[in-house]
Amino acid sequence: MAGTKFAYVRNFELPDPLLPDTYLVCRLDGHSFHRFSDEHGFAKPNDERALLLMDHAAKSAMIEFKDIMLAFGESDEFSFLFRKSTNLYNRRQSKILTTLTSYFTSCYVLYWSQYFPDTPLRYPPSFDGRIVVYPTERAIRDYFSWRQADTHINNLYNTTFWALIQKGGQTATEAHATLKGTVSATKHEMLFSQFGINYNEIPQRFKKGSVIVREIVAPESSDKGEKLEPPFDPFHQQCSKVKKKNKLETKVEVLHCDIISDEFWLPRRHLLEN
């Protein structure tokens, strides 16, 4: 900014760096998506097209922001885990939050027609966001366990709720009243005995949510035949003494699996390593 007499206004800007040496989790949530899903005719209780679109936008965000190691999504929500050592935008909260939120939203709009080719957008979707810092690996694991447990609880309720409406002929008010005070076992029994729905056979995507992970790519095997030694060259002979570290290659993959148990985390220690 030019050093004019007006430059003093910068003094009103508040610094907002996030605590160093902590994990950053940015959670984005669809704004007024109940209305948005109704306006655009989303299938109930789950619209796979909408979930695939969310996955696409989240995966694009992970490809764009290399310090995001893991993302978890359910319904109209996605949580992104930044590595502990990230220095993205000097860890400025407002910069990280606004850039990621706007990028994700832009991708959602950009790829909309791929998943809803016959449904034009009637108005712009929007997402709100927040960043929370977590100090320990245990807190991070518990956070993602919380979100996945929430996915299961919500999906079981919604699956039963919409079965009561679509197959049982109840109104929304009646369905809520029927489910009031019920536990998981009751909902399972209700689905199977009344509607022939085995909840265990419902796709994992709906029950577990979407886990988008930055996986390490295994280096290719080097035993592809012996290489001939090049002619002696003093300069290159000297340079060859300096070994270069192989750059760690990663790829972004979408999974639908359990992330509460050790089975997910132990083989992927790089997700939480500094």
Report on the architecture of this protein.
About 5% of the residues have low confidence. With 274 residues, this protein is α+β, with helices and mostly antiparallel strands. It has a domain of 171 residues: 2-Layer Sandwich (Alpha-Beta Plaits), CATH 3.30.70.3000. The protein has ten helices and six strands, in the order βααββααβααααβαβα. The chain is globular. Helix 2 packs across helix 3 and helix 5 runs parallel beside helix 7. A six-stranded antiparallel sheet has the order 4-1-3-2-5-6, with helices on both faces.
Gyration radius (Cα, Å) is 24 Å
**Helical amount among residues, as a percent range?**
40-55%
Instruction: Please give the largest β-sheet.
Output: 6 strands, antiparallel
**Class of secondary structure makeup:** alpha+beta
List segments where confidence is low: pLDDT < 50 over at least 5 consecutive residues: 221-229, 239-244
Number of strands: 6
Form type: globular
Looking at this structure, what is the CATH superfamily of the domain at 14-148 and 205-217 and 249-271? tRNA(His) guanylyltransferase (Thg1)
How many helix segments?
10
- The name CATH uses for the topology of the domain at 14-148 and 205-217 and 249-271 is Alpha-Beta Plaits
Order of helices and strands: EHHEEHHEHHHHEHEH
Q: What is the average of the pLDDT values?
A: 92
Q: Could you give the distance between the termini?
A: 35 Å
Spatial sequence of strands, sheet with the most strands = 4-1-3-2-5-6
